[in-house]
Amino acid sequence: MSLCAHAVDVAVDGRALLSGIGLALEPGRLVGLVGPNGAGKTTLLRVLAGLLPPAKGGVTLDGAPLDRLSRESRARRIAALFQGAGVGWPMRIREIVALGRLPHRRAFAGLSDADAAAIARAMAATGITNLAERFEPTLSSGERMRVLLARALAVEAAWLLADEPITALDPAHQLDAMALLRDIARGGTGVVAVLHDLTLAARCCDRIVVMEAGRIVADGRPEDALTDARLAATFGVTVRRGQAADGTPYILPWARATAKETRDAADPRPV
């Protein structure tokens, strides 16, 4: 079930947020969406989720225009997790995760056996089973992020769109979350995650899409998209590269690029 953006433009109050975005996404891969603050990453994710209509262009899901699908149909196929998402009132954690099953339930219907199983799987996968009877206001920011991720996972949608899913997590839970997203993709789900940690993005993602000023400027395997020149031009940083004992390559943002390094690396042509 492909998810594609076709020549998408988005503008707010006369300011262009996305310009000419073309992106074809296939299930079974973990795609990292990276770029500096204000590059348009979250805006693109909202367009792909059907939450923000583009000014021009459109989005298709398995070839069908996304805006022609009912909200219920979209909600069953695309699960989204955005920064700043909340609950609104105190609820037990199990009840919050159960909200992810709403697209599959009839109005006022109770949880089915399938719903209960999906909720249990999502909580186990995110390591929050022990929090089931806690109330949301008692959680740390990292625990809250894992609960909201579990709510998204409980949908068991064909696509998972996650906006900075590891930002509030400690290092151990960041590794756990990235491994989980990768496993979900290996199981056939399409996963797109906005990430700021270039090291984890390069290590864990199958594909990296780099955005700058509302455009896609690189798209490909991590080693092809995150070149020294691209990182200097887009992020204004130089990096150090190495290889772990198991042969896995890694990159570390190391220092701000000089004005000359940034200028020499700049390539204004979008992908």
What would you note in describing this structure?
The protein has 271 residues and is of the alpha/beta class. It has a single domain (3-217), classed as P-loop containing nucleotide triphosphate hydrolases (Rossmann fold). Helices cover 33% and strands 28% of the residues. It has a 6-stranded mixed β-sheet with strand order 6-7-8-3-9-10, with helices on both faces. Strands 2-1-4-5 form a 4-stranded antiparallel β-sheet, covered by helices on one side. A hairpin with a 2-residue loop joins strand 4 (56-61) and strand 5. Helix 4 (113-125) packs antiparallel against helix 5. The longest helix is centred in the middle third of the chain and has 16 residues, at 171-186. The two termini are 24 Å apart. The model has no long low-confidence stretch (mean pLDDT 93).
List keywords for this structure.
271 residues; alpha/beta; Rossmann fold; six-stranded mixed beta sheet; four-stranded antiparallel beta sheet; 28% strand; globular; ATP hydrolysis activity; ABC_transporter-like_CS; P-loop_NTPase; transport; translocase
Number of helices in the DSSP assignment: 10
Task: Kindly give the count of domains.
Answer: 1
Backbone structural class: alpha/beta
Q: Can you tell me the CATH superfamily?
A: P-loop containing nucleotide triphosphate hydrolases
Number of strands: 12
CATH topology: Rossmann fold
Q: Name the helix and strand elements from N-terminus to C-terminus, one letter apiece.
A: EEEHEEHEHHHEHEHEEHHEEH
EC number: 3.6.3.34
Family: Belongs to the ABC transporter superfamily.
Organism: Methylorubrum extorquens DSM 13060
Protein name: Iron-chelate-transporting ATPase
